[in-house]
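sry for the spam today, last one i promise. struct tokens for design, 360 residues
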């Protein structure tokens, strides 16, 4: 019989493959001309059709009543977690590459830590090892993201310039590519900031509305509405809304069914069985899978600056995760010590207050 640990490892590998596939499929969709606004509309529509009924059936008893305040919070969550997050991601993916989009996502943990610290959801204690690890990890992740954005570096596999192109034309093309790369990385930073902001905002919302599946469904609904409003001004050509080929249909179905339905279910199960930190530790594997798949399927080039930046981000991610784990362990030990001390003090006080016996 297969053990739970083996099932968990296989599930985590499948989860990272699904995530890696999302990067590749999204880039293929952009390459074949799918609109950057139409694509997320279809993606969130499919996700809502999958998650909505499941949330209605499974969370009937634990779903709190809706209030206007909650609806406003759902709208804000959608603005960050759906509209800004997916919008910046697609723009960044279009101008940069799937590999470095995946690499930049590893910095989300560090950015979330900074944001959570700013709003007092996280404690920063640099006098302890775990506090210093989180700070150093954050600096490493932000430094890595900065290197990817500002320094592309030479390619790892050198291609000879086309003989029919002159030197000046070759330089103009390279300059244009570099400018697009920088913009792509800036958009990806916006994507990571939006994602981190969504995670920070989600924590207090979940305290008042603990039905996770219903919360995700409402977020998808408001995100869909927001993208439709944007599309009304940006994508007025009805031809852009037509699915022209089986390839386009596959990319849209993958984004909706796999990236939303399957990934959400798998990730929930993995977090339940292994915990959020154990799941997050496997995230850099996604970057390696994306790099291999992008090179084989899309013929993407790897650059020195991106490799250095990605390595720094991964080091930063593991430092932050280690710091979080140690902080949790230290908190549990401190709580146990405080409880033990309280019990000892209570026993001593009871002994002192007990009446002395007159019997010799």
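last one done:
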């Amino acid at each position: 019989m297969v053990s739970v640990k083996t099932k968990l490892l296989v599930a985590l590998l499948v989860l990272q493959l699904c995530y890696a596939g999302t990067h590749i499929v999204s880039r293929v969709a952009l390459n074949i001309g799918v609109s950057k606004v139409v694509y997320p509309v279809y993606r969130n529509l499919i996700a809502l059709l999958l998650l909505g009924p499941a949330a209605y059936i499974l969370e009937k008893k634990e779903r709190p009543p809706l209030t206007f305040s909650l609806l406003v919070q759902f709208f804000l969550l959608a603005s960050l977690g759906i509209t800004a997050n997916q919008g910046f991601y697609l723009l960044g993916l279009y101008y940069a590459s799937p590999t470095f989009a995946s690499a930049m996502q590893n910095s989300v943990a560090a950015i979330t830590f900074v944001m959570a610290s700013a709003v007092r959801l996280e404690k920063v204690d640099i006098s302890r090892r775990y506090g210093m690890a989180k700070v150093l990890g954050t600096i490493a992740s932000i430094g890595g993201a900065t290197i990817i954005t500002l320094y592309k570096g030479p390619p790892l596999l050198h291609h000879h310039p086309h003989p029919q192109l002159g030197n000046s034309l070759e330089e103009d093309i390279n300059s244009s590519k570099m400018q697009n790369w920088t913009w792509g990385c800036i958009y990806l930073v916006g994507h990571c900031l939006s994602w981190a902001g969504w995670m920070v905002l989600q924590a207090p919302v979940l305290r008042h509305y603990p039905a996770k599946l219903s919360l995700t469904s409402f977020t998808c609904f408001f995100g869909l509405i927001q993208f439709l409003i944007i599309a009304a001004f940006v994508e007025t050509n009805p031809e852009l809304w037509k699915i022209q080929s089986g390839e386009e249909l596959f990319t849209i179905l993958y984004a909706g069914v796999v990236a939303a339905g399957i990934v959400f279910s798998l990730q929930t199960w993995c977090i339940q069985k292994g915990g959020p930190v154990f799941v997050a530790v496997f995230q850099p594997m996604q970057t390696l899978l994306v790099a291999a798949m992008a090179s084989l399927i899309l013929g993407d080039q790897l650059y020195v600056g991106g490799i250095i930046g990605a390595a720094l981000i991964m080091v930063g991610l593991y430092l932050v995760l280690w710091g979080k784990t140690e902080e949790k362990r230290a908190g549990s030990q401190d709580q146990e010590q405080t409880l033990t001390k309280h019990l000892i003090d209570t026993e001593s006080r009871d002994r002192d207050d007990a009446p002395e016996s007159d019997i010799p």
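Residues 44 and 220 are 6 Å apart (CA to CA). ok im logging off now
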